[in-house]
């Protein structure tokens, strides 16, 4: 008697799609990484970038993800991997920062995000980045007198004893404008006028006039030329200075030998 065998149905069950992808899903219990559809189905990232992001997110902390190391691991070229890393940086899935190692070398630290531009706590050993100080926007020349008068009139909100008359505000406004001409932010001027006030204060207008004159800061020196930015070498991931991304000097010098 022939043994009965289970065979696949000759056609899909009624209602099932006849074309396109079909999924056979098995629940993972170990050794898996959760990847969001926002990455796996990203409309603007290349397949190389999506696959590279998935690979990096699957790695343990401390794993090497330099361009040269990845190019040795996968068939893609160093240039293609470098371009994919830049795609992921622009999309918010990666951030590469320069830190100084204990031996004094400047190295690249890569942070991978499973959500674009997610916030995370930096590792304890990472050197804190210096805060970038943006200069306050200058007050247009044509509105500086009005801004100076408004600042003087509003002093009493911060220090009631600095209530000035309309005549006093008109006389003192040019002295405040002189601070604005030297690119001092209104909040800085206000702090200089309202901090450490004597008690009692008998002549508020005289104190304001004296502080505006005696504490007037000097003009700012000419801004230095902007420094050449740091780049990551597309071949060896070394940090170097150049106006545009590319290869470091050692890799450029090695190119003729590689071509030969």
Written account of the structure:
The strands form two sheets. Strands 1-2 form a two-stranded antiparallel ribbon. It has a two-stranded antiparallel sheet with strand order 3-4. The protein contains ten helices and four strands. β1 and β2 (106-112) form a beta hairpin. It folds into two domains: 33-117 and 231-260, Arc Repressor Mutant, subunit A (Orthogonal Bundle), CATH 1.10.10; 141-195 and 202-214, no CATH class. Residues 3-10 and 119-135 have low confidence and may be disordered. With 260 residues, it is mainly alpha-helical. α2 (47-58) packs across α4 (78-91). The N and C termini lie far apart (71 Å). The chain has helices spanning 37-40, 47-58, 67-73, 78-91, 144-153, 155-158, 166-181, 186-194, 204-214, 249-259, and strands spanning 94-100, 106-112, 230-232, 239-241.
Query: What number is the mean pLDDT?
Result: 81
> In order across it, which strands form the biggest sheet?
1-2
Into how many domains do the coordinates divide?
2
What structural class should be given to the helix and strand makeup? mainly alpha
How large is the count of helical segments? 10
Oligomer type: single chain
Question: In percent, how helical is the residue content?
Answer: 25-40%
* Rg over C-alpha atoms, rounded to the nearest angstrom: 32 Å
What sequence of helices (H) and strands (E) makes up the elements? HHHHEEHHHHHEEH
Strand runs, count:
4
Spans of at least 5 consecutive residues whose pLDDT stays below 50 are 3-10, 119-135
The coarse silhouette is elongated
* Separation of the first and last Cα atoms: 71 Å
Strand content: 5-15%
**CATH C-level label of the largest domain:** Mainly Alpha
Q: Main sheet, how many strands, which sense, barrel?
A: 2 strands, antiparallel
CATH architecture of the largest domain: Orthogonal Bundle
What is the CATH third-level topology name of the largest domain?
A: Arc Repressor Mutant, subunit A
